[in-house]
Amino acid sequence: MGFISEYVSIADALSCIHFEGLAYLLVVFILLWFGKLINDLFTSYSIDNELTNKDNKALAVSYVGYLMAQGIIVLGVLRGPDVSSLLVDLGLIVLWSLIGIILLNLSRLVNDKLIFSKFNNKKEIIDDRNIGTGAVQFGSYIGTAFILQAIISGESEGILPDLFGTVIFFIVGQLGFIIFSIIYQKSTRYDLHGEIEKDNAAAGVSFGATLVAIGILMSHSIMITNSIPAFFVWFINGMVLIIISRFVVDKIILPRHKLDDEICRDRNWGVALIEGGTAIIVALLINASFV
What we know:
The chain is mostly helical. It has one domain. About 80% of the residues lie in helices and about 0% in strands. It has 13 helices and no strands. The longest helix has 30 residues, at about 85-115. The chain starts with 9 loop residues before the first helix and ends with a helix. About 40% of the residues are buried.
């Protein structure tokens, strides 16, 4: 009966109470506030005004992705190597979280200028309140955050090598998103840019969720190796499998209906969620199966 004692352990309960956790939580709330300030610097509109007075749902979808992405980045910092001093640990958390948040805002510019260069993301979200564009930004934020988390949570090799590696893999990761967006467009029978510009939320949801999957896929390679050639081999193999998952959804999960018709013609964002969710599952399984 001795095994029962572990279910009523008082020592384990007391170990859950410590003030360091409160210090970390306070720093996290401060970082979320800084994240909003930095976001304001990169945008020409008032987030508060758009979300409340104008009830802009497209910006809400995008911004919740930004908030979740900040949390993913900070989580990566918290899971990083421990240091002996609480103050030093908190300082490193602030430093790397701010670096991650700045890069997160730069990823929005990559999304705007290179992934969706045929139209203006700000106009689509602020003027047209385009939910599809908001969903794509949501996916871009979350996917980038997984990449940054993988970079930041690794063993430190010194401040300069760490900064160099962070910038290099951020650039490589964004290049991966650009390459994938081109391949994804080739795999569909509709014009992805055109459908999103025409306020097709389903097209944005499917692509945005798949960007999350690609971010998860790329993050695993970064966690296990610093080799850029290995990264691209992993990325290409995984990307092919994720593209194949579209056809799995089309032929196996929804055999009586065409996936592209549901998204393009019917604007069925429920089917779009199934496609994107399947891509995320496939990315997680790839990461777990090929180590």
